[in-house]
Specification:
With 280 residues, the chain is of the alpha/beta class. The protein contains 11 helices and 9 strands. The strands form 2 sheets. It has a 7-stranded mixed beta sheet, sandwiched between helices. Helix 2 runs antiparallel to helix 4 and helix 6 packs across helix 7. The protein is elongated and about 70 Å long.
């Protein structure tokens, strides 16, 4: 038997709700934990706990919104990334496991006491993860969205990470900053009109952080062209991109004179990040 939203009423037990789910089991459990302000262990040990009217209303509303397609991360206001909790809202993209590859590659190339720049930081997931892992590093992050920067600053504070945030349209605010050892970015790379923009969670995420409103490569071109002026000698530019863009991004890097140009595969074995060293 599958539960209906109308079955989520005061007096229903946690155990009964967990046996009858309208949603994916993980989504159901995450939303129930959020509605009850408890943990997964709390659900297990409190299976006979009966929902109050307020809890039933809250959980029912969450389920309805999820059934309408709203992302779980936005419903609960948080997503884990690189082992850390990140606040998320409609002002920022939801951090995804694929992007952890970009963090790992950056860490591998960041010298002791090095300087790193996260361009288009959004929630701050990349910058905060870097700063939290490498306390010695000088981490800067920028974004054109003031609302996104507000979220990123709160995430840095929550995770005890030291990050310098700049309000900037790409390289505009970097005129007087020293060069960086690594510039990392997860820019908008979905082409205008791509069907994925109207499907699933992407329907709720900020469109300007998803698409360049062009061919999907314009933001990547800006990064490739502008990064050399802000990279140290032998410094790296690392960029996340779409599943079918690796060859095109490598071509952009090579034509601009970058060295050691290559791509790396994510957990799904897709070429997800490409990069190279500053042109000589």
């Amino acid at each position: 038997m599958i539960a209906a939203v109308t079955d989520i009423v005061a007096g229903v037990t946690v155990g009964a709700l967990q046996r009858q789910a309208l949603l994916d089991a993980l989504d159901w459990r995450v939303l129930l934990c959020h509605a009850l302000n408890t943990t997964r262990v709390g659900l297990i040990t409190g299976s006979e706990r009966a929902l109050t009217p307020d809890q039933a209303q809250r959980f029912g509303d969450l389920v309805q919104r999820r059934l309408a397609g709203e992302p779980v991360a936005y419903l609960v206001g948080q997503r884990e990334f690189f082992g850390l909790p990140f606040e998320v809202s409609g002002a920022v993209l939801i951090p995804r496991p694929d992007t952890e590859l970009l963090v790992e590659l950056t860490l591998d190339r960041l010298p002791q006491g090095g300087r790193v720049l996260d361009m288009g930081t959004g929630s701050g997931a990349i910058a905060v993860s870097l700063a939290h892992t490498r306390r010695d590093a000088d981490v800067t992050a920028l974004d054109v969205s003031a609302d996104a920067l507000a979220v990123a600053r709160r995430n840095a504070e929550t995770n005890g990470a030291r990050v310098t945030f700049l309000h900037s349209d790409w390289f505009a605010a970097l005129a007087d900053t020293p060069p960086f050892d690594v510039i990392a970015s997860n820019p908008p790379y979905i082409a205008s009109g791509d069907r994925h923009l109207s499907e699933g969670d992407l329907r709720y995420e900020p469109v300007g952080a998803l698409t360049d409103h062009a061919d999907g490569l314009s933001a990547l071109r800006i990064l490739v062209a502008g990064a050399p002026a802000h990279l140290a000698q032998q410094g790296w530019l690392l960029m996340e991109h779409g599943y079918d863009q690796a060859e095109a991004v490598r071509a952009l890097l090579a034509s601009a004179g970058y060295t050691d140009v290559q791509s790396w595969r994510d957990i799904a074995d897709i070429e997800r990040v490409s990069g190279g060293r500053r042109p000589l």
